[in-house]
Amino acid sequence: MTVQIDLHTHSTASDGTQPPAAVVQSARGDGLDVLALTDHDTTSGWAEATEAALRHGVSLVRGIEISCQRDGTSVHLLGYLTDPDDPVLSAELDRARQSRVTRLERMVELMVADGIPITYAEVLAQVPAGATKGRPHIADALVHNGSVANRDEAFTKWLGNDSPYYVSHYAPDPVRAVQLVVGAGGVAVHAHPFTSTRGRTIPDALIEEMAAAGLAGVEVDHRDHDDEARYRGRALASRLGLFVTGSSDYHGTGKANRLGENTTAPAVLEQIVEQSAGVTPIVRA
Ligand code: AMP
Ligand code: FE
Ligand code: FE
Ligand code: ZN
Description:
The chain has 285 residues and is an alpha/beta fold. It is built from ten helices and seven strands.
């Protein structure tokens, strides 16, 4: 059987529901050989995931998922094997995480003003220590106080990008984010490019700009992409000389996505490792 490789997962270092070590253990249990931990705007889960990878015999690609924004549209960029001490990239991630705090407070204020039963203290109680704060933590507070059944219902009712309570946070331009990842010795992959937000998707021209800035790959096999989006993604990648990845975007019980539901070819992982100069992959014994 081919090596099972899942290059996009989240832990309690951001908005996943399992601690990094538990994500690694689940990966082992689900028969994965290689896992990338890619929490939103942070590398704080790397140390625990590394220790667990060595213990459970799973290979680990240390990664991040950077929230970016262009003309009000959200773009997610995966960065693999970046140097976590790169001063420029870490300063940018610090700034984004800081801005996420005020943004979450403002969203809760708007919801409270509209009579939605929620307090900021309830939200903070749902944020694991040190986690990148995000809308899923508001959703968890709403689940906890019985207002909704799950995160998905909270997003549908109140937290979506087109909601009146939506507030944006500081996020770098996607082209700059590609440069930051490459500058930190990492490999940049455009996460789920055809996820639609407010009915809009990313124009090919933006991916071309990102490719010119050093983008290496496109995450094509992802549950947000139907067959047409996957066809378009493969055609675009082939035209621009980018490789194609597939991943689960696992968030524990926070989303329906299951580990290994989409996977990446071993030859693509080899390219990622070859092109990186930040940190090395953790290779299982
Ligand atoms: P934020 O980064 O704070 O803007 O929140 C965006 C995050 O919310 C994404 O990374 C997703 O993991 C999560 N999310 C978006 N839509 C949903 C949904 N319908 N159900 C569960 N989680 C969601
Ligand atoms: Fe997420
Ligand atoms: Fe994403
Ligand atoms: Zn993700």
